[in-house]
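Aim 2 progress update. The chain analyzed this quarter is reproduced below.
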Amino acid sequence: MDSFSVIPPIDVLEGRCVRLSEGRRERVTIEGGDPAAAAARFDADGARYPHLVDLDGAFSGLPSPGLVERVVAAAGGVPVQAGGGLRSAEAVEFALAAGAARAIVGTAALDHQALTDLAGRFGPRLVVAIDARDGRVVADGWVSESQRSPGELARSCAEAGVERLLVTSTRRDGSLAGPDVDLLAEVIDGSGLPILAAGGIGSLADLGRLRELGCEGAIVGAAIWTGAFGLAEALAYSA
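Predicted structure tokens:
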């Protein structure tokens, strides 16, 4: 691949940045302070596409008012991708109108007709999140489990006209235990689409493995937030 994106996340719960273990609301492992300050810091470190997740929106289905605007304003002109609670075309439109360069949907992708409509309307500005646990896609802020496999949903996304996927191993999220390469290979093979990987990335070597696998980039959360390595270091490694 000619380039590989290292993307820092800004996960926001009740107005402050956090990291959660396996995405569970009650398992806050890191407190990260103000989201706007985080966006400014990542901008200074060279972030190319900070990844905003409205956790309150993900759990409730109702995006937090003003959050996207605040983070976009603090990001210094760097494009921001945003998700969390975007379960309708109207919600996606609001996120994009608030300044997000890309909008991420997860739960909404389980309805194929709705997904087709979203892909047709928003094109490359739409990213579908495939969040997987124990071989099944999870939804509603990772609280409910569907009967869909990640590979099946990936094929459905490709058929619907989706242009990019974000694939997360929820069991590994926040663990630093390494990415789930089998999950990622399943989705790459099933879709043929550009893939952003997330979940378990704990070392610079993990970034190399993902690049070799064919991923377009990676969301690197716990490793950056705990200081296992810095964003600037990761960007230099992946250049």
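The chain has ten helices and 13 strands. Residues 5-238 form a domain with the TIM Barrel fold (CATH 3.20.20.70). These observations will guide the mutagenesis experiments scheduled for the next reporting period.
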